[in-house]
Amino acid sequence: GVRYIVVHPGASESKRRFPPELIGEAAERIARRTASAIVMTGGSEERPIVDACRSAISAPLADMTAAFSVE
Fold this sequence. Notes:
Elements: E1 3-7, H1 20-34, E2 36-40, H2 47-54, E3 61-63
Parallel strand pairs: 1-2, 2-3
Helix pairs in contact: 1-2
């Protein structure tokens, strides 16, 4: 079956967020090494962060930003 890496790059406080480019690069490396697809998650307010992460990713990716709610 297909392996997935779920990446949620947002955080409730901006000081707790890693740089999006580094998150994207890390996800890309892990996906390549493990032959996995990447699933990006986040709320609608995190769209810019997810988009910045995506710019560093060329591996297969499913963007699920704003697709789910935990409320």
